[in-house]
Amino acid sequence: MPPKKAGIVELARKGLAMLLKEGTQKRRDEIHSRLKRSEPVSDANLEFIDNTANHVDEEQLVNKLEKAADVNEVVENLAPQEKNLFQTLKKLAGGIGTVVDKIVGKRKRTLIPDRLKCS
């Protein structure tokens, strides 16, 4: 039985939240506030905003999953770059990725992670 849409979307959303939380959010907010005040910003900070702190692709992927009628089909048919993004978000979300691994076909494992099994 394929995993439910809510579980896959929540996994991607949690990964995105972790990505933002992993240190980029604070620095990104500081740089944006300097730009709003028309203060000078170093080239390194601009590079950071354009690359490291730019999570538009990840946000689009989460939105795509949220809007999908059949999220399992969408996950199976992701473009290679989107699959890499999804794998990154899944790793950042931690632990519950084994269900999605089964769908994407990267690894074969049990459908229920050990920590979710009833004793």
Structure summarized in a few sentences:
With 119 residues, the chain is mostly helical. It is built from six helices and no strands.
Number of helices: 6
The coarse overall form would be elongated
Distance between the amino and carboxyl termini: 22 Å
Spans where pLDDT lies below 50 across 5 or more residues: 96-119
Helical fraction = 55-70%
Order of helical and strand elements: HHHHHH
Instruction: Kindly name the structural category.
Output: mainly alpha
Strand content: under 5%
Give the overall average pLDDT: 75
Number of E strands: 0
Describe the biggest sheet?
none
Radius of gyration of CA atoms, rounded to a whole number: 17 Å
Name the features.
single chain, 66% helix, disordered C terminus
Topology of helices and strands:
Layout: H1 5-36, H2 43-50, H3 56-67, H4 71-76, H5 80-93, H6 98-104
Helix pairs in contact: 1-3, 1-5
